[in-house]
Amino acid sequence: MEKTWRWFGKNDKITLQMLRQIGVEGIVTALHEVKNGDVWTYEAIMDLKRYIERAGLRWSVVESLPVMESIKYGGPDREELIDKYIESLENLGKAGVRTVCYNFMPVIDWLRTDLEHPWPDGSSSLYFSRTEFAFFDIYILKREGARDDYSPAELAVVDNMNATATPAMRQKLIENIIIKTQGFVNGNISEEDSEPVKKFRALLALYKGIDRNALRNNMKYWLERIMPVCDKWDINMCVHPDDPPYQMLGLPRIVTCAEDIRWFLNAVPNVHNGLTFCAGSLSAGPKNNVPAMAREFADRTHFVHLRSTQVTPDGNFIEALHTGGRANVPELVDFYENNCRADLPMRVDHGRLMLDDADKGYNAGYSFHGRMFALAQVDGMMAMAHRN
Q1: Angle at 208 between CA 202 and CA 214, to 5 degrees
Q2: Contact (CB, 8 A) for 265 and 273
Q3: How high is the pLDDT of residue 186?
Q4: How many other CB atoms are found less than 10 A from the CB of residue 54?
């Protein structure tokens, strides 16, 4: 596999020169300065591509060229937005950047309730508490029908939490669930939004009446519209699984398990319609057999995210070390190294916060030392995969 790294552009505190020193070969990035929905010009793409190449690296994957909400729920401006998306793909193809990671999750991207959950060794990682999320859903967001989504035992814990929750705790959940994750890079909500909860409610309302079948049909329609330009330029589109991989907030989620993946691959049976195999996202689904899924979908996997989670019986999960957890990263590395193309892009994902990372102001989950440690672990796994 090609060792890649998610890099957030020229203003990223982690420089390309630093990445060369730790063995990174390819860069995963985007035109983060371009407003969502606007066209990525050929000139802007080439400017960033040349900048990366001058550092001795290559722009391997776009992550991401955002799919606008209106495309997902089928709004009145869907056709205009798809046309702009196609124009951006055309420009990427001309520039020779030909792998695009995207997601089709309504409103929410990845969700965590704690961005610095402590480990005994002093490091920290991302964490999801189902009861804290339920508290946010019921008592902060105040979503209609939210209580119906949780068990009586969970509701008892949540109601007790509401009786003791401080304003600081409530604000922290708003920051973690809405602002720092959904405002992540090119998200729907930014840190400048004065009423993030109100805006979040408005975004959820856009999906009223949109169920799994409707969202699936909208994804199929979008993929069919963009496949001709992908065929023209040999661009691989690879959807990221839902994170966490199950229904939340009353929204449909359609990339959660093997059945879901089979559906969208078969719905548009074009080799350029493919998958970002995110082992971490899929491992948070207790019923997902991650190594088996990697084998089943290998021929349509165009990008790999390597990380892992530990899941508890109550539905909570934490980012595990890359050597542990449910994903079985060593087995995945052995499979990909020995059965797939040598230039398959792979990046380590969601490293721990460790050493002096906390002082650097990195995006949540994207620390330098934590990811460097993970990359070293995976690099060792890659070497072991070729020991024979």
Answers
A1: 130
A2: yes
A3: 65
A4: 9
Look up residue 271 and give its two tokens: 């080799």
Q: Which residues of 217-251 are buried (b: 16+ CB within 10 A; e: fewer)?
A: ebbebbbebbbebbeebebbbbbbbbbbbeebbbb
Residues 6+ apart with CB under 8 A from 208: none
What is the reported pLDDT for 246? 92
Instruction: Collect the ranges in the chain with pLDDT lower than 70.
Output: 183-186, 190-191, 388
Please, where are the H alpha helices in the chain? 16-21, 42-54, 69-73, 78-95, 130-135, 152-164, 167-174, 196-205, 212-233, 258-267, 279-283, 290-296, 329-339, 368-385
- Three-class SS of residue 346? strand
Cβ 181 vs Cβ 111: under 8 Å: yes
* Alpha-carbon separation of residue 328 from 85, 99, 152, 270, 296 (angstroms): 36, 25, 33, 29, 16
Q: Which two tokens stand for residue 198?
A: 């109100």
Q: Indicate which residues carry an active-site annotation.
A: 240, 278, 305, 349-350, 366
The pLDDT of residue 225 is 98
pLDDT tens, residue by residue, 80-102? 999 999 999 999 999 999 999 99
Whether 258 and 221 have beta carbons less than 8 Å apart is answered as: no
Residues facing residue 58 across a β-bridge = 26
* pLDDT, position 388: 62
pLDDT at 359: 87
Which letter does DSSP use for residue 251 in this model?
A: B
- Return the DSSP state at 138: I
Q: Is 312 exposed, middle or buried (0-12, 13-18, 19+ CB in 10 A)?
A: exposed
CA 68 → CA 30, 37, 81, 211, 250, distances in Å?
15, 6, 7, 18, 19
C-alpha distance across the termini of the chain, in Å: 17
Total number of residues shown for the chain? 388
Catalogue the E-assigned strands of 110-156.
114-118, 124-128
User: Strand 124-128's sheet: what is its strand order?
Assistant: 114-118, 124-128, 317-320, 308-311
